[in-house]
Design a protein that fits this description.
With 57 residues, this protein is an all-alpha fold. It has one helix and no strands. It is 39% helix and 0% strand.
């Protein structure tokens, strides 16, 4: 199953300074590492390769 489009609605907008972004990124990374130590690695699925369409007539 391939999803071509995604509809979304913006519920929250967060504006951060560069220092705030880095702090958030480090906090998320720390939480992710703790989670993976406890429950195992979270695998990121790879997208299947797109087949080129034959557009010749």
């Amino acid at each position: 199953m391939v999803i071509e489009t995604v509809e979304r609605e913006l519920l929250v907008e967060i504006k951060l300074s560069p220092v705030g972004v880095k702090s958030l990124a480090l906090a998320l990374l720390n939480n992710l590492q703790s989670f993976e130590k406890r429950f195992g690695e979270i695998k990121i699925p790879t997208a299947p390769e797109k087949k080129e369409r034959d557009l010749s007539i």
